[in-house]
Amino acid sequence: MTPDQSQLALEKRHAAAAALRWVRDGMLLSLGTGSTSAAFINLLGEAVQAGKLRVQGTATSLASENLARQLGIPLVEPCRGLRFDLAVDGADELDGQLRLIKGGGGALLREKLLETASDYLLVIVDSTKLVPQLGRFPLPLEVVPFALPWVMDAVEKLGGAPQVRMAHTGSDQLYRSDQNNLLVDCYFNVISDPEHLMHQLQNIPGIVEQGLFLGLAKAALIANGEEVQVIRPGQAPTPASEFADLP
To answer: Which of 66, 159, 168, 221 has its Cβ near the most Cβ atoms within 10 Å?
Structure first.
């Protein structure tokens, strides 16, 4: 039975709370985007306000940046040489090898920038996000507006059934990223070879970034009810409670 929204909200909070246990004083954090990341930022903010943690962060979206500021989490601007001790972020889909689809919230460019600049990417998700094969969730692309027609043609040839994302359901306004680019959602249904598709998309002019995150995640915390398990590539799931530090 698929969990309802209240159950999913609890799972997201459980995964976020498990991640917070591994945050240490002095860490520089990459703060993710989306509902599960928001749960983590809220818990982190509570710890900062209570004086339990002294950390700094950079956010992967304006929404997460605003939330962090409201909660008193000190923020750091991008600069040369900046690297993060830990990135904590959600995912729209992940498989057992920790290959991810991200970008449902439209922040894939900043997410990939910060998570590539992180020493450790920890993914936090609810029980619905783990899939045997990527592709059920539409793959997002961030696209330069001028290039949109040609990007749509190229993706259609790859079997992606591209659709330009709208600002809201029923709206005639196009969704814009924080960088003022467009988002295109590609319905592949099944992505049998994510690595090959990633390279194909990277070679299409006008695509600023694509939502396949491969080889970046070190571990994932997956909440199923109140139980949180650690998933690592090639290893059996392990209860998160068995780890005092990052796995």
So the answer is: 221
Q: What are the structure tokens assigned to 122, written together?
A: 């920890």
Residue 186 sits in which domain range?
A: 139-208
CATH number at residue 177: 3.30.70.260
Q: Flag whether 13 is in a domain.
A: yes
DSSP class of residue 166 equals B
Q: Average pLDDT for residues 124-145, to the nearest whole number?
A: 97
Average pLDDT over residues 9-20: 97
Residues classed as catalytic:
111
**Residue 40 covered by a domain:** yes
| Claim to verify: residue 144 and residue 233 sit in the same structural domain | no
What's the pLDDT band for 1 if we cut at 50, 70, 90? low
Do 120 and 147 lie in one domain? The reply is no
Query: Would you say residue 247 lies in a domain?
Result: no
178 token code pair: 């924080």
Single-letter amino acid code for the residue at 83 = R
What pLDDT digit, counting tens, does each position of 202-230 carry? 999 999 999 999 999 999 999 999 999 99
Per DSSP, the residues of 33-63 read -SHHHHHHHHHHHHHHHTTS---EEEESSHH
